[in-house]
């Protein structure tokens, strides 16, 4: 267990605490932590490619439009403000995108 997290949990006499952690895909999250109740289990969002459209296809360049479906399986909003992706074909990175 992370030592900082352990110290936060073991604090005596504190009614409300917060745990800050970096979670893949979600980024930096702050979770409320109290002495009673349950700590939520975080789930990665489910990402599916719904449609692929080739806008330009040649030996020099390929322009592709991907329609992604993102499903949040948590009880809270993702608060998604940035997204980065990388496309791999047969073990070779063929492109990527960043939305900010």
From TrEMBL:
InterPro entries (UniProt xref): Lea14-like
GO terms under cellular component: cytosol
Family annotation (SUPFAM superfamilies): LEA14-like
PANTHER family given in the database record: OS03G0843300 PROTEIN, PTHR31459
Protein name per Swiss-Prot or TrEMBL: Uncharacterized protein
Lineage: Eukaryota, Viridiplantae, Streptophyta, Embryophyta, Tracheophyta
